[in-house]
Amino acid sequence: SRTPVTVTVTGAAGQIGYALLFRIGAGDMLGPDVPVRLRLLEIPQALKAAEGTAMELDDGAFPLLAGVDITHDARVAFDGTNIALLVGARPRGPGMERGDLLEANGGIFGPQGAAIEAAAADDVRVLVVGNPANTNALIAQRHAPSVPAGRFTAMTRLDHNRALSRVAGHLGVPVADVSRVAIWGNHSATQYPDLTHALVAGEPAAARLDRSWIEDDFIPGVAKRGAAIIEARGASSAASAASAVIDHVRDWTLGTAPGDWTSAALPSDGSYGVPEGLVCSFPVTAEGGEWRIVPGLDIDDFSRARIDASVAELIEERDAVAALGLI
Ligand code: NAX
After folding, report:
1. Does one domain contain both 25 and 114?
2. Is 17 flagged in the annotation as binding?
3. Catalytic-residue membership of 248
4. What is the Cα–Cα distance from 31 to 110, expressed in whole angstroms?
5. Domain for residue 64, yes or no?
């Protein structure tokens, strides 16, 4: 039997953790032949709740689950880890300014990046879910200089999946018929969900979509979907976010479908005019365990302005954390 893959989940006692851990245990993330050892990182006040979740994982009797360790020490949590899912973050509290939020999260993601640098396996792959996800990923990446920068990613797969589903619902087609949608920029309200290159059953989607639907319904509907979920459910997206984590890591490790792409935020190589190093969402493919930004797409004026606006926000966040000495 194979050596288990070590997967670290931070914020494991939170609501995304609760949905995510059982999907991992069931083998949905790495495939049905890959045993997994889980490491749960939580803050001391939440360790007891994490232990409760671990008891339920035991009760799942998952054949692929080789063990569950729980700790509040990042060095222990990331020791030998192959896949690090950074879900736990500091939420914005009442009266908290954006600078306070960035600083509080810098205090989490800087040390976690340093612990990954010091302790993780050579092949470590990192996905940041905790918000502000792109900039938290940038902070962690800068604290792990010997890990290839491209191993640090932030999650825009939930936004991508929301976009796929919204197009499919609008046109009355199965989700599987929709391909080549893209999320550009920041995982925030400035993100740009792009249908310019989208296909429906292999044909250009644009031919079947009104410009006004795209601009007045689709784009704001995807960008504000998180708020709509909170309004309806009384809590932020959790199971859908966990499902997007599963999709992101599965595609990263096993590869994207031929002819299609997905979306992920990763350090820019300068593609599409996005400043190098900025953790920005792009259309991407994965092969051999590495993401590649889809090259050579035509960017029209509307898309250019939307991408630039979201990138400008990422630059502001980067400059703010630099000014705070967090990177
Ligand atoms: P919860 O508040 O339910 O859980 C967060 C957990 O993180 C808590 O149990 C807390 O104790 C823990 N935590 C806090 N600081 C920690 C630290 N330093 N080390 C380890 N654990 C720590 O939030 P949940 O709904 O699970 O959401 C988690 C994060 O995902 C939030 O930042 C949220 O904004 C973000 N999201 C990101 C999404 C994305 O698409 N990128 C979508 C879903 C979600 O909103």
Report:
1. yes
2. yes
3. no
4. 31
5. yes
Structure ipTM over 0.90, yes or no: yes
Which residue's C-alpha comes closest to atom 2 of ligand 1?
14
Q: Known binder of ligand: residue 162?
A: yes
Domain residue limits at 291: 157-317
Q: Check if 41 has its Cβ closer than 6 Å to any atom of ligand 1.
A: yes
Please name which of 5, 82, 87 lies closest in space to residue 41, comparing C-alpha atoms.
87
Note the pTM of the prediction, 2 decimals. 0.98
CATH of the domain at 19: 3.40.50.720
Give the burial string for 197-226 (b: 16+ CB within 10 Å, else e): bbbbeeeebeeebeeeebeeebbebbbebb
pLDDT tens-place string over residues 45-101:
999 999 999 999 999 999 999 999 999 999 999 999 999 999 999 988 888 888 889
CATH number at residue 240: 3.90.110.10
- In total, how many domains does the chain have? 2
